[in-house]
Amino acid sequence: MQQSKPVTPQWWPEFISNHCQLLEWQDTLEFLCFTLYYTIAQEPRWPCYQAAELCECAGELIKACRNQSGRLYPLIQPKERGLLESNLRQICQIRHAVAHRLPQTERSMCLKKTLAEATITRLERLIRASASRYHIRSMEWYPVAASREQNCQAVTIELDGPSILSARQMSLGRHTAEATALRASEEGRGQEKHSKKKEKKKEKNQNCQQDERLEQVTEKHEIDRHHNQLEFEDIAIYNRLRRRLEHLQNVLATRARQLEQIQQAKRYEEFALRQLTCISSQGDNDGVSLGFILAVLVVSASLVFYF
């Protein structure tokens, strides 16, 4: 088996171009082999041509070429049968080169081109003959997916025309146009839906911003009210403390005056006692002096008892 060799960077453009060409030939051959087998088989072996692997499909056609009781055998001339079988065996080289990504020389690409063109011509001629002989006018084709799911759109291909590949290309063009229109419509709906979602989001953001501003105003009002309340409480406390201080100052002043009067009374008392001592020592019986001293004592006593 031919091994895949690494491709140097300078050969990348040529390798990619050759690989794309091989992919195109493989896709075309798979489609034609699938279509020919569809026209001759009593039951379809594959749900769509994408599920028909080229080597397997070519092998089934080779068996059909040798089956004398089959529907393909009478459509092939005896001298064409060997060439068709040889072409079907050789096209597996294209599948092998694509699967293993083998680099191709210019000579090998020319040989594969000749092989692909000859096989395509023979397959198209057999498809027209089979469709005409067995009254098969059209075939459903699924170009998008490889299964008959509900989301796959079938395309009808006319098999009684001059070229199967041209009919395939026209059907693919119609399908592509319809798919493009559908995609454009979906994109339009998507953009409209996106714009509606954007507007709703914008409106929601505006509502959120309004709610945030309202909450900020409410919070600021509450903070201001709390600050005012604290200021009023501070003023009330200050007034109470100021009144208390004034009261204590008044009490202290009163006590100071009382203390001064008590000291004055004591001085009067001491003065009266000294006079009494002098009078008693001198033996003076003067009534005026004695009365004066008694008055002083009475005043001092009254002051002391008053406080």
TrEMBL record:
Keywords of the record: Coiled coil, Membrane, Transmembrane, Transmembrane helix
Transmembrane segments: 287-306
Region (Disordered) residue spans: 175-214
Positions with biased composition (Basic and acidic residues): 184-193, 202-214
Coiled coil residues, start to end: 238-265
Top-rank taxon, per record: Eukaryota
Protein name listed in UniProt: Uncharacterized protein
Organism expressing this protein natively: [Emmonsia] crescens
